[in-house]
Amino acid sequence: MARKVLGNDPFRRGAADRPDAPEAPKPAAPPGKQPRPVTPELQVPRAPKLTPMPEAQRRAPVAHAGSPKVKGESTDPKAIPVPPPRAPVAPRPVKPSAAKPRAHAGAPSVPFEPVPHASAPSATPIGSAPRPHPGSPSVPFEATPHDGTPAATPIGSAPRPHAGSPSVPFEPATHPGAPEVPFEAVPHPSAPTASPARPPFRPSPPVYVPPAADALPRERALAPTPPATVSGAIKGLWRALRTASGLPTRATEVDAWGKDAELARLLRPLGEVLYEKYWRVHTEGVEHVPRGPCLLVANHAGALPLDGPVLHLALKRERPELADARWLLEDQVFHAPFVGLLANRLGAVRASPENALKLLSEGRPVIVFPEGFHGLSKSFSERYQLRRFGRGGYLKIAIRAGVPVVPVAIVGGEESMPLLAKVPGSFLGVEYLPVTLPPLPARWFLRFAPPIDFAGAPAVPEDDLAWIERTNVAVRDQIEAMLGALLAQRPKVF
Amino acid sequence: MRVGVTGITSDLGRGLLPLLEADSRVERITGFDVAEAPGGLSKLETVSLDLTRPGSDDELTAALKAARVDALMHLAFVNSRVHGAAFAHELEVIGSMHVLAAAQATGLRRLVVPSWTALYGARRNGPALYTEDQPLLGAGVRFVTDRVEVERQVESFAERNPATHVVVLRFAPIVGPNADNPITRLLRTRFVPTVLGFDPLWQVIDERDAARALHLALDCRAAGPFNIVCEDPLPFSVLVQLSGGRAVPMPGPVLRSTIRLLETTGVASVPVPLLDFLRYSWLGDGTRAARELKFRPNFPAATAVGGLR
Predict the structure, then answer these.
(1) Phi and psi (nearest 5°) for B194?
(2) What was the pLDDT predicted at A222?
(3) Interface membership of A346 toward B (CB under 8 Å)
């Protein structure tokens, strides 16, 4: 069984094909706290937890899910997008309280019943519990044919491996940050992310004492962001093009990390339009990002990594009081001509422990993608399957710098820039040239989990390598669970 | 305080001498050089010395003892265009060996040696800001490799002679109307080739700031290496633009094969490894100098590079 994290993905037939074994609830504990048996390889499927579905049930959704789902769009302009019906899955005893709200989930006007199972969050595994009953015909889905739905064109409908690839069931109980609150379909700046329905997260002890205000990096006073105009966008793009080619741009405001404040200012209106109107980025839990330095750990995706800039812009919009964040980029992209240069001028920093520690010492949030290049180079058919989280270097940095780690799940990057093929590119000094499409209007969802409590961490990371490995796997599992939940709740890809 | 200066006619020497002349704590300046000394300095007395000659260490020892020099500024390095790499090697590496031998023989109290941030090398896997404890991995160019050799000698000298206060100042490329080094020659050309799709960050330092840093090293408490850099790095293309030239981006493979062709035909000798400096950023972290040397540059990079022509 493939790792079924694809949720409502129109590219994927039989999207709801995921492990259905009901899991025993686990006592909630932050990942670092509860030592779990360390598996020798990091990606070993947790075999005992898997219950393979009968073949018939697994095939059934394939025919079902493909057709009406992609067209499911209400004609009512005011109606919020409707979640596609979950394809029926294996019958399974579901708690009535949990099953009932979800049965209505297809009702056009109330797409996401908020908090259907908030009272017993840890009792229902995220990926598996709230599904309509398989036999229930009550999926009142308005199958209004919609021609323009881009989702109807299967771009990369390669058959996904059904068997063989490891399938890691979600373990909601171990992840306190795992989402319980389905997000609203309409992105709202003041979204009820801090709703009381969220299980009370055990507040982590203050692992970090924010420095005095004057210790934070001083941002240069800049002219206000220009209004979003077509000419402004063209001007910004022209400058970005010149910058990427290495032509002089009068960029005298470049800081030591390579960020060109003027270029960022010119491109900001265009970025805002893309963010709001094109990708319709929905963020959830941004308030978890602590003030002062922290490591934001996210999944990495897309032929060209757009996740860094989008996450950066999300922080800029939702948490303007934070210091300017930077994201770390792996060598293969950072040293690629044009792309690496442009990314550097926009705020990317070459991923290395020295750079990360220095950035943190400046009081900035630092965005890291522990999957690195492996996350980018996976093909579109493997989207949202997390790679190994490196060697846990980000944990060593977090411990050394004494800063919290905030897991972030990003959905949308894979469909925005799908990696369709690789062309040899050694003549340019890159591993391959990605064949992709211009950024597609996929919806983006960012979910921030509460900061991880590192009590019990070794004082010196090298002292307890097993702890690092264990925690690394736990953080990866948490992000995987968040991804799975986001994908399951995603109303539409586009 | 009696100060000895080798290479008084070098760029740094010419910048430093007026500062020493104006400093009331300096009683006497003893200058060592093969060339004619600049006039108009009352404290300066010159000794003719050729550091490339065998036995020059004995001459230097005798002169240092006679003048009872407290601090020696070793500025005899070749930055101008050289026609023989062998001569430059003799002066820089072997000359420094003679100077260190003399310093050990006289029990010198303080030794100041200039160096370059380029010695860290422009590396693919280097940090964004090189601190002083980073290894010196610059290679491929005589200009760099000889100075790496000098720094190794100085470092082992400092280890073996703890009584001598050794200060190494690693300068960003020194620019200014009087400066003449490979970087200023590159920036003074009309069309500067750059690598298409790359635009590394560079630092420069004004020659007046560089002289001031040398002067500060005369009585600083801290020892060891210091990065002497400007606070605002600039993309190389902007640096070229501000210096009045024109950046011509060329595709990397084309540039590389052109350089190889020029070198093979003997038209020009530009080593290919130099291209790394046009691809990867090489920035020195100047916080140690600001903290322990109390050095902050007076001239921003744009001003410094604007005075090139």
Answers:
(1) -125, 170
(2) 55
(3) no
CB contact at 8 A, B179 and B11: yes
Say how far apart CA A117 and CA A256 lie, in whole Å. 49
| Residues A71, A240: Cα–Cα separation, whole Å | 38
C-beta of residue A369 within 8 angstroms of C-beta of residue A298: yes
By C-alpha distance, which of A202, A179, A223, A209 is closest to A294? A209
Residue B140 DSSP code: S
For residue range A198-218, list pLDDT tens digits in order: 333 343 433 444 444 444 444
Of B127, B198, B241, the CB nearest to A337: B198
User: Chain B: nearest CA to A150, how far in angstroms?
Assistant: 34
User: For residue A209, what are the CA distances in angstroms to A206, A292, A297, A382?
Assistant: 7, 8, 20, 40
**How do strand A405-411 and strand A445-448 relate by DSSP bridges?**
antiparallel
| A349/B contact by beta carbon, under 8 A | yes
ipTM: 0.91
Residue B257: other Cβ atoms inside 10 A = 12
With beta carbons under 8 A apart, name residues in chain A contacting B197. Answer: 244-246, 337-338, 341
Q: How far is CA B127 from CA A23, A93, A402, B216, in A?
A: 46, 56, 21, 28
CA geometry: angle B234, B238, B244, nearest 5 deg: 130
The residue type of B165 is H
Q: Which residues of A touch B191 (CB under 8 A)?
A: none
Pairwise CA distance, residues A340 & B199, whole Å: 10
Flag if A248 and B249 touch (Cβ within 8 Å): no
Whether A364 shows a pLDDT value over 90: the answer reads yes
Query: Which residues in chain A are closer than 8 Å to B194, comparing Cβ atoms?
Result: 246
Q: What H or E segment, with its residue span, contains residue B258?
A: helix B252-265
Task: Give the residue from A23, A117, A172, A126 showing the smallest Cα distance to A477.
Answer: A172
Quick: pLDDT tens for A41-70. 333 333 333 233 334 333 333 333 333 333
Nearest chain A alpha carbon to B124: A335
CB A361 within 8 A of CB A326: no
Of B163, B125, B169, B132, the C-alpha closest to B147 is B169
A257 in B contact zone (CB under 8 Å): yes
Does the beta carbon of B199 lie under 8 angstroms from any beta carbon of chain A? Answer: yes
Determine how β-strand B205-206 pairs with β-strand B174-175.
parallel
**What CATH number was assigned to the domain covering residues B2-180+204-233+283-299?**
3.40.50.720
Q: What is the pTM of this model?
A: 0.73
Cα separations in angstroms, A491 against A18, A24, A69, A487, B123: 18, 28, 10, 9, 46
Contact B39, B16 (CB under 8 A): no
- Select the residue of B195, B232, B233 nearest A246 (Cβ to Cβ): B195
Looking at the partner chain, which of A246, A251, A358 has a beta carbon nearest the beta carbon of B197? A246
CB A16 within 8 A of CB A62: no
- Could you tell me which residues are beta bridge partners of residue B6? B32, B74
The region, left, alpha or beta by phi > 0 then psi within -120 to 50, assigned to residue B68 is left
Query: Could you tell me what percentage of chain B is helix, strand and coil, using 3-state DSSP and rounding each to the nearest 5?
Result: 40, 20, 40
